[in-house]
Amino acid sequence: MEEPHRSYVRQREIGRRRDDFGVRDRLLKHEQLLKVGRIIVSEMNMDFLFQVVMDQTNRVMSSERSTVFLYDDTCDELWSLVATGMKKNEIRIPADHGVAGWVFQNRKPLTINNAYNDERFYADIDKYSGFETRNILCVPLTKREGTCIGVLQSLNKSGGDFYDDDLELLTSMSHYVSVAVENARLYEDVKEYSAKIERILIRIETLERVKSHLTKFVPSSVAKMAEQSPDKLQFDKMPMAASILFIDIQGFSGITENYDQKLVNDMLEAHFSRYLECIYRHDGEVNETSGDGLMAIFKNGKSRLHARRAVSAALEIVLENDRLNDEIPYPWGRVELHLGVNSGKAWIGSTKMKSLAGDRWTYTASGLVTVLAARIGSLSSDTQLFVGPETHREVEGYCEWEFMGSHEVKNIKEPIPVYWIKDVKQ
Fold first, then answer.
1. Which residue has better confidence, 376 or 355?
2. Do 314 and 165 belong to one domain?
3. Do both 275 and 382 map to the same domain?
């Protein structure tokens, strides 16, 4: 074979080997890129994502440093949380400054192999970091719909300049980074939303606990109004037909004076708890308690209905009081009650009391019907249920009763007919 021909063959073999090495090198680079992409898109924490991108970009690009700048539309700035070799400080630059700003504004990649000779280079970052930039490869980070969210850049390629192959590789990496950034942002949004929901649930749980305690201090109708229409609460007093029940313990002052206060309090809790159950069973509302007494309002339904409910509740209280006296003996003997019911038109709603310490509201029934209920109750003794004439008129065919005569009561001009309700007719 002639020498020129042999030389030509050797040159072709050398060229093929170079092409093979080039193809092999690109395959290795893309294989590495695929692995790196999987690593990058698997990171959901934004703080860690910056460092992962930096490390993996340096490895693929053989660069000394890499940086991700993301756009902050609230202040029109590009920011980076981490730069390789630096502390975890946040760097911020105007969105139109430097190479990163130019790439972000123009949505085009940029290769600069002599940074300080390019007017677009923003040298202040080098002054801030102490790092000397020789060359830069910078590409935009773009979402699927085309929105630019920042830039990815590699600095100081080991062994020389950046070329078109490097640009192709970094552009490929930018797609992974864009997806990872969006995933991380969505993850942060989900975490923030979950934390918000958790805070709301904790607040609701707290409010429910508070409500469960507060409802013990307000009538059930007020609690229902507040729960159903909190913005439309009407607490102004309004006239309405009602039956008022008064209960207090006979001889309570002497009991309190002569016996242990804890024992007296235990007695009040035991007895009043049973009385409350009777009142609630008949749709009554405990308006207020004061020492040894309580007042209940029955106002739902027509006059005959709430009068019967008030009387039925009171008669159940008589029976419960007998049971409690049998169950729990006390050193002062039996617990006996004053019981009185009166019916008529009462003013029911809030009473507002203003002071320097603030406003205090009470939900109550006021008027003559309430005063008479208290006065009639004071005439009762030994747990007998006394009622006024209006209540008697509504329940006389429903109950067994006895007329106790007309009585003068405090601050009322005319004597009041009083009736003893003994039981419900069978």
1. 376
2. no
3. yes
Q: Would you tell me how many other CB atoms lie within 10 Å of the CB of residue 307?
A: 27
CB 399 within 8 Å of CB 424: yes
161 has a pLDDT exceeding 70:
yes
Give the bridge partners for 67, in sequence order. Answer: 83, 153
Task: Report the amino acid identity of residue 399.
Answer: C
The C-alpha angle with vertex 367 and arms to 248 and 301, in degrees rounded to 5, equals 85
Residue 321 has phi, psi (to 5 degrees) of -65, -40
Cα–Cα separations (whole angstroms), residue 283 to 82, 186, 245? 68, 53, 12
* Residue-wise pLDDT tens digits, 103-158: 999 999 999 999 899 888 888 777 777 788 899 999 999 987 888 989 999 999 98
What residue numbers bound the domain in which 88 lies? 31-190
**Residues 60 and 115 occupy one common structural domain:** yes
369 in the same domain as 275: yes
How many domains are there within the chain?
2
84: tokens are 């390789």
What DSSP letter does each residue of 11-60 carry, written as one string? HHHHHHHHHHHHHHHHHHHHHHHHHHHHHHHT---HHHHHHHHHHHHHHH
In Å, how far are 189, 202, 203, 209, 391 from 196, measured between CA atoms?
10, 10, 10, 20, 55
Domain shared by 110 and 249, yes or no: no
d(CA 151, CA 128): 20
How far is the C-alpha of 135 from the C-alpha of 130, rounded, in Å? 16
- Whole-model pTM above 0.90? no
Residue 389's domain is classified under what CATH number? 3.30.70.1230
What are the structure tokens assigned to 420, written together? Answer: 């003893």
Q: Which residues in 336-398 belong to E strands, given as ranges?
A: 337-355, 358-366, 384-387
**341 in the same domain as 290:** yes
